[in-house]
Write a structure and sequence with these properties.
Elements: E1 3-4, E2 25-30, H1 31-35, E3 50-57, E4 63-69, E5 71-72
Antiparallel strand pairs: 1-5, 2-3, 3-4
Length: 73
Amino acid sequence: MEKVCPVCNSLYTIKDKCDNCNGIMEDKGRADEYMDPYSNQMPISDSRDYCIHIFECNNCKKFYRKHISKLGV
């Protein structure tokens, strides 16, 4: 069975609040894509069971990483 990230594939969105200021955390995409502008052209090399996304607070600009569990399709 193949596993896919539900956030990357728009199956659902994450609506978290910032621990620092209670602002809204915005998904900036997969960590690999956020760190390197050319990485979206390369094969995905993340874990079989999760995908790491970067989130940024729209108020205080704090960043954090979140492991998103992949779903079987």
